[in-house]
User: Fold this.
Amino acid sequence: MNILNAIIEIIYPPRCLICEKFLVNHRIKKHQNDILICQECFNSFDKITSPLCPICYKPFESEIEIDHLCEDCLRKRPFFDALGAPYLYVGDFMMGIHHFKYGGKTHMAGSLGPLLASFAKKWLKKVDGCLMMPVPLHPKRLRERGFNQSLLLARHVAGVLDTELDFLTLRRVRDTKPQTGLHRDERRKNVRKAFELTSTDVVKRRSIILVDDVATTGSTLNECARVLKRSGSGEVFCLVLARTSGM
Ligand SMILES: [Zn+2]
Ligand SMILES: [Zn+2]
Assistant:
């Protein structure tokens, strides 16, 4: 931290993005300067740990810490090769993402981005030559919200992992209904043909890291992966901040 920032922090002490308490010596220890989340809130996040499904990252309630495929992935493999999320979409973390996405708190990307990046560093074995793509919003939604939360996150992660970022090639061409309240089959149908690539050359034989804020059903990411694979991409990894437990 430089002197100017130190002075600013004395005059305007930063607050925790989740509970709004002042962050005087209470930040997450590992990430002193960049993440504005207090240790207490950080500890309350529901971290996903083994045993889990190595494809969709669904956690299992079992004492034996051996990862294995879940029933859904056994029955029908998704188009993506693996999905990874540091946390479950519950409690304070869910509220935090909600404020970030719907409350227009774009500055939260400065803290959520590094959290996702540090997870990605451990989770992704090899990132050389990978192409990072945020899940796009339909132009109509982008106009309403003013920003794409997935792009804000992907920018941070791409910077940390030093991967190429492409947020123009994958486009959302159909404005879909919100996925909430829809059954599995309805969700799949709802996002079908919602995405297109403006060019297939950039994805040919390349591993893709798709970035989104949350995986609630996995259908959106799966549909993006389907389009990418059909266009000749290599492996597709889905990187999200949080996933629901029932997905
Ligand atoms: Zn807090
Ligand atoms: Zn699974």
